[in-house]
Amino acid sequence: MEKDKVGSLPFGRWGEDIASEYLQRKGYQIIEKHFRFHHTEIDLIARDRDYLVFIEVKTRSSAEYGLPEEAITPKKKSHLRRAAEGYLYLNNLNHIDCRFDVISISFNPEGTPVIEHIKNAFE
Question: Which of 20, 56, 76, 99 has its CA 20 to 30 A from that of 82?
Answer without folding.
Answer: 20
